[in-house]
């Protein structure tokens, strides 16, 4: 296994050579990542050469439509699903909202949905609102100390009334990676479908969703080095069962059934740049040829190994500090490099202090109000979140650790 060539990686992100960003280390990646060069190139090519209504026979339009199809086909292949099982919507929040409307129509009063109090509100609130239509909402609760979800607790909540189990691949403040395959198997054995919010996980390597097993898997491309799109995998069996939410004459196309908004053509097309980036990384590191899923898995592993190595010292530096509460596990191998710290003062003010040290980070609730509340965090003070990805350099980590030493 080769190690990630960080210079090559960073050369693919114009932000790292942008003069106005020099000297500033970016640690709000869980909010939204920098954009890779292939995505920027495709967006700019689309807007200059193809910005016409796609799928007509003239050249500019044909190329526009082909590029949108290419994006879906190549990303679906990396994710290990069929091309029409992937759809693009404006955002993950919008995508779950539409899905919840479909479940609202499909479910009967008295049937149940399980949600967690570990999720970002996007995979929680839209489902909870179905209570207004007589759907029973059951909450799978985290351990208030560790923030962990225990699969054994899920088993106690399941029965024949449950139609859907929603949970995150990892939380955007707790960071611990949930065992999706194990949880999905438990839910499926009870006859329930599964919806996984992968927004906080996918930036750290696209998963093979086909292998993982959930019926729905969501992530946001603006956090995975791409444009501002919500990516949504809906496996065929569920997608064909749920009522169509798009125009009635589009309902035969699986990828159109849950995206009623007209697509943002340029951004959908530019999503192919994320596949370009995976391919570039795989080729540069002598990864497998051919099979996109294998290439995705290879790149995922490259990213993961690097992130774990960079993360452990960060966790070690904060876990025993006075007046700092590390949210979630201090074992880097079990979590994403999204590190939230509860302090005994305003985290927004601490984030402002970090600016003096060239650190771009933020304090607040990050729309993870429920998990922070459940863990007893004072929401007025919020958490300071420092999040990074595979492209973060050792120097930036050192800069962060020095800055935390100075401000905490
Ligand atoms: C874990 C998680 N889920 C969902 C979302 C919502 O994604 P979007 O901004 O695409 O609606 C976010 C955004 O921060 C998130 O962190």
Describe this structure as you would to a colleague:
The structure is a single chain. The protein is an alpha/beta fold and 408 residues long. It has 15 helices and 13 strands. The strands form three sheets. The protein has a seven-stranded mixed beta sheet, with helices on both faces.
Entry summary:
The protein has 15 helices and 13 strands. The protein has 408 residues and is α/β, with parallel strands linked by helices.
Give a quick set of tags describing it.
globular, 13 strands, 40% helix, 7-stranded mixed sheet, 4-stranded antiparallel sheet, binds pyridoxal-5'-phosphate, alpha/beta, 14% strand, 408 residues
The end-to-end span amounts to: 38 Å
Number of strands: 13
The Rg value, from CA coordinates, equals 21 Å
For the largest beta-sheet, the strand count, sense and barrel status come to: 7 strands, mixed
Write the layout of secondary structure elements.
Elements: H1 6-11, E1 25-26, H2 37-49, H3 59-79, E2 86-89, H4 92-106, E3 112-116, H5 125-128, E4 136-140, H6 151-157, E5 162-168, H7 180-189, E6 193-197, H8 209-212, E7 216-220, E8 230-234, H9 236-241, H10 265-270, H11 272-284, H12 292-319, E9 324-326, E10 338-343, H13 347-355, E11 359-360, E12 362-364, H14 369-374, E13 383-387, H15 394-407
Helix pairs in contact: 2-11, 3-11, 3-12, 11-12
The chain binds pyridoxal-5'-phosphate.
Pyridoxal-5'-phosphate is lined by residues 91-93, 120, 122-123, 168, 172, 197, 199-200, 220, 230.
């Amino acid at each position: 296994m080769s190690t990630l060539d960080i210079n090559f990686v960073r050369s693919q992100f114009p932000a790292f050579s942008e003069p106005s960003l020099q000297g500033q280390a970016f640690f709000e990646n869980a909010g939204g990542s920098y954009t890779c060069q292939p995505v920027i190139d495709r967006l700019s090519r689309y807007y200059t050469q193809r910005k016409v209504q796609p799928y007509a026979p003239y050249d500019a339009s044909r190329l526009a439509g082909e590029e949108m199809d290419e994006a879906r086909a190549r990303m679906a292949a990396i994710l290990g699903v069929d091309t029409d099982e992937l759809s693009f919507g404006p955002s993950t929040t919008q995508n779950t909202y539409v899905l919840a409307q479909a479940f609202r129509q499909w479910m009967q009063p008295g049937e149940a949905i399980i949600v967690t109090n570990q999720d970002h509100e996007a995979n929680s609130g839209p489902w909870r609102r179905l209570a207004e239509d007589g759907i029973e909402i059951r909450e799978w609760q985290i351990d208030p100390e560790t923030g962990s979800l225990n699969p054994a607790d899920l088993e106690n909540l399941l029965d024949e009334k449950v139609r859907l189990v929603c949970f995150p691949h990892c939380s955007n403040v707790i960071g611990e990676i949930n065992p999706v395959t194990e949880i999905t198997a438990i839910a499926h054995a009870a006859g329930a479908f599964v919806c996984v919010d992968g927004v906080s996980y996918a930036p750290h390597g696209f998963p093979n969703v086909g292998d993982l097993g959930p019926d729905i898997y969501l992530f946001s491309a603006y956090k995975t080095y791409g444009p501002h799109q919500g990516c949504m995998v809906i496996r065929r069996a569920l997608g064909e069962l749920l009522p169509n939410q798009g125009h009635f004459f589009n309902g035969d196309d699986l990828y159109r059934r849950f995206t009623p908004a007209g697509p943002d053509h340029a951004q959908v097309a530019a999503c192919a740049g994320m596949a370009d980036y995976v391919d570039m990384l795989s080729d540069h590191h002598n990864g497998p040829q051919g099979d996109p899923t294998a290439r995705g898995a290879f790149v995922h592993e490259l990213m993961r190994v690097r992130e774990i190595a960079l993360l452990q010292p960060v966790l070690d530096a904060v876990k025993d500090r006075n007046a700092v509460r590390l949210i979630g596990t201090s074992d880097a191998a079990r979590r994403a490099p999204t590190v939230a710290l509860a302090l005994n003062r305003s985290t927004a003010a601490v984030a402002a202090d970090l600016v003096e040290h060239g650190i771009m980070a933020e304090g607040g609730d990050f729309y993870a109000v429920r998990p922070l509340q459940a863990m007893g965090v004072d929401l007025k003070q919020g958490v300071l979140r420092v999040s990074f990805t595979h492209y973060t350099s050792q120097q930036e980590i050192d800069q962060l650790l020095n800055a935390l030493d100075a401000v905490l």
